[in-house]
TrEMBL record:
Highest taxon in the source lineage: Bacteria
Protein name according to UniProt: Outer membrane protein, adhesin transport system
PROSITE patterns named among the record's database cross-references: PROKAR_LIPOPROTEIN (PS51257)
Coiled-coil region list: 332-377
MF GO annotations: efflux transmembrane transporter activity; porin activity
Chief place of localization: membrane
Keywords: Cell outer membrane, Coiled coil, Membrane, Signal, Transmembrane, Transmembrane beta strand
Compartments, record wording: Cell outer membrane
InterPro entries registered for this protein in UniProt: TolC-like (IPR051906)
Cellular component GO terms, alphabetical: cell outer membrane; efflux pump complex
Keyword Mitochondrion: no
Length: 443
């Protein structure tokens, strides 16, 4: 190719780049085309050490959605909850982060759609000769289509960011639920272990009474059956605790066998639930998609230049992506309805989340009431058992009567031991729904 051809090619490219401000908006005019196509610093998403969430989007603007996610703070206090959270986050495979990085790269690509396209064109003439040319095309007016594509890509990043926050919060919730399940089972088993000595003592008394002919073997079998049931319940609890801790260990980067205890969590939280934030981001994405689709039905104006050998040409082109047909009016109306539907879905999600929160708050109040009542009942049953035991030792009560009262006391103590962990489980579900189990800057 001659020097003249090189010069024409460069002139054509520079002319198309100069026209790029017509479709890119004010922000596009101030940017260098060479930095946008990758001749400047590399994209943030390409760096493996880059944070998963960044407020600056590929088009250079700030994302309020991601900024809101980054300012969220975990309500988990320092102690057993924070130990479990740190251990499971350290072992997180972060699949949702890969989706976010992919969306960020797609947005990075779309942020350059205001630049001219450059590519070869090969055709066969009627004489059998192959003609090759270099074609440069710059969109001058497209009814906002390119801008809508960039907005869609940005909203797609925000949707992926919220999905990552949800995934991280759900992982911590799953881990803490396993931890609470193990703690509850261990607490119930501890009640049985503490009561086992008394029940074994009653079984021994019945053996002696049968040997002495005071009681029959049926009475001994009843007491023995209650002892066996207590041992079986304790074994089941220990097995459930071991299974929960084994599952927790599988998703943790550090051993958590020595971690014990719970901490109260605040329920009145001002944070917007993540499901609502995601619905809003998805609505923004749907509106951008609708605008891009609408622009596809309308004519667009482009400047086209071509260089073939020593010849060059240029001109304007008017075209539509989908063509103009008799159903254009209905197609445009359907696009507008898509945007309205996206806003309606936000209201529906907000209502569903509000209902879930009210249900959880009602369940929490009920469990807290049960916790207080069961604790009182357990204390009364324990005092009643002690009174019956004294009367039995004085010969005023039958062993079977005392064993029945003792069995009721143990059952209430097991319920009282389990209810605090049920309360903690519901508090955890509320916090997870609000998305405040993990610091935003740690996602």
């Amino acid at each position: 190719m001659s020097k003249t051809t090189h010069k024409k090619t460069l002139i054509a490219f520079c002319a198309m780049a100069a026209l790029s401000g017509c479709s890119g908006g004010a922000d596009s005019v101030t940017r260098s085309p060479f930095s946008a196509i990758g001749l400047g610093k590399p994209a943030v998403a390409d760096s493996p050490s880059a944070p998963a969430l960044a407020t600056e989007t590929p088009d250079g603007t700030q994302s309020e959605v991601i900024a809101g996610l980054l300012t969220r703070r975990s309500i988990l206090p320092q102690g057993p909850y924070s130990q479990v959270s740190s251990a499971v986050l350290a072992a997180n495979s972060r699949v949702a982060e890969s989706d976010l990085r992919a969306a960020t790269l797609r947005a990075e690509a779309q942020s350059k759609n205001w630049l001219p396209t450059l590519g070869p064109s090969v055709s066969l003439t009627s004489l059998g000769a192959v003609v090759t040319s270099l074609v440069v095309e710059q969109v001058l007016f497209d009814n906002g289509g390119k801008k809508a594509e960039r907005a869609y890509a940005k909203a797609d990043v925000e949707v992926a960011a919220v999905a990552l926050a949800q995934d991280t919060n759900n992982r911590v919730q799953d881990a803490l639920t396993l931890y609470l399940s193990a703690q509850k089972a261990e607490a119930r088993a501890a009640v049985n272990a503490a009561a086992m000595a008394d029940m074994e003592h009653f079984a021994w008394i019945m053996d002696e009474r049968v040997k002495g002919g005071v009681s029959n073997s049926v009475d001994r079998m009843v007491v023995q059956q209650k002892l066996n049931q207590m041992q079986a319940d304790m074994s089941s609890d220990l097995e459930a605790a071991a299974a929960a801790r084994a599952e927790l260990a599988a998703m943790s980067a550090a051993p958590l066998d020595g971690v014990k205890g719970t901490s109260p969590l605040p329920v009145e939280l001002a944070a917007t639930p993540l499901a609502v934030v995601k619905a809003e981001a998805e609505a923004t994405r749907s509106v951008a998609e609708a605008k891009a689709a609408r622009a596809g039905f309308l004519p667009s104006l482009s400047a086209v230049g071509a260089v073939s050998g020593s010849k060059s040409s240029g001109g304007l082109s008017i075209e539509t992506e989908d063509g103009i047909g008799f159903g254009l009016g209905a197609s445009l109306a359907a696009v507008d309805q898509q945007a309205e539907g996206a806003n309606a879905r936000i209201s529906q999600v907000r209502e569903d989340v509000e209902r879930s929160l009210r249900a959880l708050e009602g369940e929490l109040s009920s469990l807290q009431r049960q916790q207080e009542q069961t604790a009182t009942l357990a204390e009364g049953a324990e005092a009643n058992y002690r009174s019956f035991a004294e009367q039995q030792r004085a010969g005023q009560r039958d062993v079977n009567d005392v064993v029945s009262v003792f069995e009721s006391a143990v059952r209430l103590r097991r319920e009282a031991a389990a209810l605090p962990f049920e309360v903690a489980r519901v508090e955890l579900k509320i916090a997870a729904l609000k998305g405040v189990l993990v610091d935003g800057d740690k996602i």
